[in-house]
Design brief:
By secondary structure, the chain is mostly helical. The chain has one domain: Na+/H+ antiporter like fold. It has 16 helices and no strands.
């Protein structure tokens, strides 16, 4: 068990640490990561997800049905509770509150999902990672964009129309439509030519290292500020959200390995999409940055615990 945990977590935190070191030592400008982010989110990760999913047997895909509902429930519940706390308890502005809410509710699937689940469950778990990214991309991410755009809007567009516009922009991103294309190919039983598979694989192989390095760079640019908002955010993300997922999969009797993959996906620490969305709307939130850093640090412990639990049930 100790070897499994070490093999799963050590590479993840080592590469993140390299990115953090490079950013803190100013070897790479940690304030200008747009190009690396573009490479990961528009080329490397979509290629990796398309390749993995398009080669997944149809029966395995159909077995992943419960994953969608449980991931949606866990993210939306935490999103709703955190949003209420931001506006009603901490009294923050709409833009800053929505950035913190997404940081807490949406795990860092894009960077940590593939290497972590691949180490624990094998290459077929790439489908679960793709499902998680897609669910987050069409639920809590568009909601956050609606709040951010509403905070700076000067027009009279209705919230419903804003949400639909946000969803339409989101689904046009390669990180969303590439795995969906792979899903259609797999369900239709269309074979991928070997040369095409090699082309996508070559780019996709850069995903894990580049995405984790990018996470470390982003973490290195954040100032740590500890207050009640940060502490609650980390508690919700690293403890309560995984407990919710574990309770739901057990209550519904979801079979393994889907149950374990679901819980481990939700246990992934806070993601940086909230920070990226906020920066695109000129919203900077030190609370969200602190939550991102502390959640990532604490996950060295919480992920180890979750791996022991899900491995014990497998």
């Amino acid at each position: 068990m100790e070897t499994m945990i070490l093999n799963a977590l050590a590479p993840v935190f080592f590469v993140m640490g390299m990115g953090y070191y490079a950013g803190r030592r100013k070897m790479i400008d940690n304030q200008k990561v747009a190009n690396l982010n573009l490479f990961v989110m528009h080329f490397a990760l979509p290629s990796a997800l398309f390749t993995a999913i398009s080669r997944t047997p149809r029966s395995v895909i159909l077995d992943n049905g419960p994953l969608v509902g449980i991931l949606t429930l866990c993210m939306v519940v935490v999103y709703a509770v955190t949003l209420v706390l931001q506006f009603k308890v901490f009294k923050v502005r709409t833009g800053e509150g929505s950035v913190q809410t997404l940081t807490v509710a949406l795990p860092n699937y894009a960077s940590i999902g593939l290497p972590l689940l691949g180490s624990v469950f094998g290459p077929t778990s790439a489908l679960s990672v793709a499902v998680a990214i897609a669910v987050g991309s069409v639920t809590v991410s568009p909601l956050t964009l609606v709040f951010l755009e509403s905070a700076s809007a000067t027009d009279a567009v209705s919230p419903v129309r804003r949400f639909l516009l946000a969803v339409s922009r989101t689904v046009r991103r390669p990180i969303v439509w590439a795995p969906l294309a792979g899903l259609l190919v797999a369900l239709a039983g269309i074979p991928i030519p070997d040369v095409a598979g090699r082309c996508f694989t070559l780019v996709g192989q850069a995903t894990a290292g580049a995405a984790l390095f990018l996470t470390g760079l982003i973490l290195s640019s954040q100032r740590i500020r500890v207050n009640a908002d940060v502490v609650l955010g980390v508690l919700f993300k690293n403890v309560l959200q995984p407990l919710l997922a574990y309770g739901v999969v057990r209550a519904l009797g979801v079979p393994d390995p889907i149950a374990g993959q679901t819980v481990l996906l939700i246990a992934i620490p806070a993601g940086f999409f909230g920070m990226v969305f906020g920066a695109n709307h000129n919203v900077r939130n030190e609370v969200a940055g602190s939550t991102l850093v502390l959640s990532s640090l604490l996950s060295a412990i919480t992920l180890a615990v979750v791996i022991m639990v899900v491995a014990g049930h497998s």
